[in-house]
TrEMBL record:
Source organism: Gymnorhina tibicen
Family listed: Belongs to the LHFP family.
Record's bilayer topology term: Multi-pass membrane protein
Gene name of the encoded protein: Lhfpl2
Residues that span the membrane, as ranges: 12-35, 96-120, 132-154, 183-203
UniProt protein name: LHPL2 protein
A Gene Ontology cellular-component term: membrane
Length: 228
């Protein structure tokens, strides 16, 4: 018989698992890993024709994507165009970034799978007599290791030609040059920290769902058990 067991700690672990997976996925897909040095608007822009000041902008560069500004002369309007600069994996700007993409992708796939599985822990608490919380926690810890490897290798690619074109000639491995780090990089770091918190907190979720109070309510014949 399936027992739906919901506790405060198990729900927090489930929600945190989902948040971490989405945060890492959004960061990976974003082009805001590096913020390039300020560039003036095009000399053909409408601001020049009207005598106004040029408005500088900061192009951004991600692992496989980028954002830059394009001008529409007819309407004197500037739009930011974002999209992948690499049409396939081999066109990613650096071998280090290719390795980063692999490690992050593996880690994110594991996290997304665990986020999906965590939803069903309300009904299924064990697999082959092993706690599903402990299994998920172990896999989340492994995912965190993959994420760490990716984040360590990423700065080693700052010396590639693509990064130098955004960050200036002084950019090199682990040196930003004229660039600064964007929100996506910090989000990936924060998500990695939360991944290990998830892995540790899974043990608390397992303890909460197998507590004496839960067992007492199961013995009373309850199918829906909610404990704060």
């Amino acid at each position: 018989m399936c027992h739906v067991i919901v506790t405060c700690r198990s729900m927090l672990w489930t929600l945190l698992s989902i948040v971490v997976a989405f945060a890492e996925l959004i960061a990976f897909m974003s082009a805001d890993w590096l913020i390039g040095k300020a560039k003036p608007s095009s000399s053909e822009d409408g601001d020049n024709r009207t005598g106004g000041l040029q408005e500088p902008y900061h192009p951004t560069l991600g692992i496989y994507g980028r954002c830059t500004r394009i001008s529409h002369m007819q309407f004197s309007r500037r739009d930011t165009l974002c999209g992948p600069y690499a049409e396939n994996f081999s066109e990613i700007a650096s071998g280090f970034w290719q390795a980063t993409a692999i490690f992050l992708a593996i880690g994110i796939m594991i996290l997304c799978t665990m986020a999906f599985v965590s939803v069903f822990t309300m009904c299924v608490q064990s697999i082959m007599k092993k706690s599903i919380f402990n299994v998920c926690g172990l896999l989340q810890g492994i995912a965190g290791l993959f994420l760490i490897l990716g984040l360590i290798l990423y700065p080693a690619g700052w010396g590639c030609q693509k990064a130098v074109s955004y960050c200036g000639p002084y950019a090199s491995a682990y040196k930003l040059g004229d660039c600064s780090l964007g929100w996506a990089f910090y989000t990936a770091i924060g998500g990695t920290v939360l991944t290990f918190i998830c892995a540790v907190f899974s043990a608390q979720a397992e303890i909460a769902t197998s507590s004496d109070k839960v067992q007492e309510e199961i013995e009373e014949g309850k199918n829906l058990i909610c404990l704060l």
